[in-house]
Amino acid sequence: MQGAALGDDGVQTVRYWLYAPGEDASMWEEFYERGVMGLGSAALGDLSVYTSKQEVRERMLEVYPDYGRQTNDILAAWQFTKEMKPGDIIFAKRGTKEIIGRGIVTGEYFYDSDGDRFPHLRHVRWTGKGCWSLDKPFARKTLTEVSDYTDFVGGVEALFEESTEAAESVVPSEPLTEYSARHFLDEVFMDEGRYGATVGVLRAKKNIILQGAPGVGKTFAAKRLAYSMMGVKDASRVMLVQFHQSYSYEDFIEGYRPSGEGFELVKGAFYSFCKKAADDEENDYFFIIDEINRGNLSKIFGELFMLIESDKRGPKNKLQLLYSRELFYVPRNVYIIGMMNTADRSLAMLDYALRRRFAFVELRPAFDSDGFCAYRAGLGHTLFEALVREVESLNRAIIKDESLGEGFCIGHSYFCNMDADTCTDAALASIVEYELIPMLKEYWFDEPGKIREWSDRLRRSLR
Fold it and tell me: How much is the pTM?
């Protein structure tokens, strides 16, 4: 069933954590020798018995009533037990500016009742040890996820560059989840013929744009299209960025950024992704661009306008980059999937030079697809059926409206991710009041009569 686009189940991703081994790293030497990392808060008992952060919070405030809200300690206990997993990278720290070690989590959480002050443990293969002072201070918390701070992660990883490759080569990796065309068709409301055509045009063109109305599941479909072509859910070979008005060549390819000693040349997202793909030519890589028409595309792509063409890929077609003067190419195993909302009237059409380098695939509302019909039947909710029928009538009116058209239809994903327990009258009313009606006010901002008519019809369908 079609669900959330991000945070996919079954996808193995490496997360990065900044960790303090005791106050002022007092436990570092012991933890390093034992090959573990540990947390305090011994009075909480076995953390695996807690089923929610709220339970941890209530117990924490009960056993440590004089320590205030303890928000950071509660979050650390939950993340250490429930969110951290084998394969994650740990950066050990002392204070707020000193990195003292790097390790890879190799085991699940376990509770050592004889562990004195630090009974909450995980096994870690420590791959590096030393002392490096950084220019900028980091969080004081015991445990902080830093996965999203790619510059920080890259800088710290560089400190351990010599030992990282050898250490990771002996760490067993978890098996990837298989993902076939059949999995795609089971999850995405698209017929088999259209899926086959989309895969074919992406293989041939290397670059496609999925365009459609709000709520047709463009991001969801893009990621699963990539997985189905790879055959596995391998998030390490998929990267998603979102363009916006301030996104630039410097973010995408390379540019100078302020540093402690002036300015330094920093590589951008697409450059780094291409280099990674070039080192793994046997596998396909997918670069996904959300809201591709929100950016200044000529400015962002720069000289890569030519290099992304399907017949200009590979090392025989190198161009010199603007700042570094490096000769650069786009690997043949890199596929670009852009996404574009056809209902956003605030945006200009795509640059024609870029248009001819992409194939365009239209995603439409899939209320009549076999998958969505089966989903509707499985819910067995009378008001859900009535609301969907009214939205289908609304879409027919939108298509006939000369100022709107098919690109402004209401998508099916507004009604996904429900089950018999969550598909309530209140949930459906919330969709109508806070998602659909505001959109109609934007569509027909100069026709209040139509807004009233369709708002009333949507509300009546739920009575």
Answer: 0.68
